């Protein structure tokens, strides 16, 4: 894993939360995107080399909607940038981690993504991200 790619935050209302984070961080949202595979709308903020991703459900059965029902708004996941997602997935499986998907899938911000089950990571949902070239 090369670095922290972003921190994902689940929110109920994307527009209101974008306004809040623009005021909080002092920067404007630089990108909004719908991710069909997760039924989620996203908004990205950059502060220096760091990124924050806001996630809002577009379907009541989406993972984000379920998260919001169980835990409310807040930190949803931490994402790590990886050089080769398939190699990293194999390494983690070999280390005994449970992955939530068998193959990488298309995520937001032009990335291939895979999630690591939080039961094996002290309750933290970990996302692997590889930039699509």
Please tell me about this protein's structure:
GO terms for molecular function: metal ion binding; methylmalonyl-CoA epimerase activity. Belongs to the methylmalonyl-CoA epimerase family. Keywords: Metal-binding. Residues 3-131 form the VOC domain. One of its GO terms (biological process) is L-methylmalonyl-CoA metabolic process. The protein has 3 helices and 8 strands, in the order βαβββαβαβββ. A hairpin with a 3-residue loop joins strand 6 and strand 7 (111-116). It has 133 residues and is an alpha+beta fold. The longest helix has 12 residues, at 14-25. The protein has one domain (3-131): 2,3-Dihydroxybiphenyl 1,2-Dioxygenase, domain 1 (Roll), CATH 3.10.180.10. It has an 8-stranded mixed sheet with strand order 2-3-4-1-5-8-7-6. The chain has helices at 14-25, 63-71, 85-94, and strands at 3-10, 31-35, 40-47, 50-57, 74-81, 105-107, 111-116, 126-131.
Structure, briefly:
The protein is α+β, with helices and mostly antiparallel strands and 133 residues long. It has helices spanning 14-25, 63-71, 85-94; strands at residues 3-10, 31-35, 40-47, 50-57, 74-81, 105-107, 111-116, 126-131.
Strand percentage lies at 35-45%
Radius of gyration over C-alpha positions, nearest whole angstrom: 14 Å
Number of helices: 3
**Major sheet attributes:** 8 strands, mixed
Shape descriptor reads globular
CATH homologous superfamily descriptor: 2,3-Dihydroxybiphenyl 1,2-Dioxygenase, domain 1
Residue share in helix: 10-25%
CATH architecture: Roll
The low-confidence parts are none
Number of domains: 1
Q: Briefly note the structural class of the backbone.
A: alpha+beta
Stated plainly, the CATH topology is called: 2,3-Dihydroxybiphenyl 1,2-Dioxygenase, domain 1
The N- to C-terminal Cα distance equals 18 Å
How do the SSEs run, as a string of H and E?
EHEEEHEHEEE
Number of strands: 8
State the name of the first-level CATH class: Alpha Beta
Please give the order of strands in the largest beta sheet.
2-3-4-1-5-8-7-6
């Amino acid at each position: 894993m090369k670095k922290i790619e972003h921190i994902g935050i689940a929110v109920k209302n994307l527009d209101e939360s974008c306004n809040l984070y623009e005021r909080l961080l002092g920067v404007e949202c630089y990108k909004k995107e719908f991710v069909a595979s997760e039924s989620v709308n996203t908004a990205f903020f950059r502060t220096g080399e760091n990124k924050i991703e806001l996630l809002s459900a577009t379907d009541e059965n989406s993972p984000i909607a379920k998260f919001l029902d169980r835990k409310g708004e807040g930190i949803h996941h931490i994402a790590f940038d990886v050089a080769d997602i398939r190699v990293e997935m194999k390494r983690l499986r070999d280390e005994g981690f449970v992955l939530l998907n068998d193959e990488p899938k298309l995520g937001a911000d032009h990335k291939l993504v895979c999630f690591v089950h939080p039961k094996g990571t002290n309750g933290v949902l970990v996302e692997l991200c590889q930039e699509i070239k």
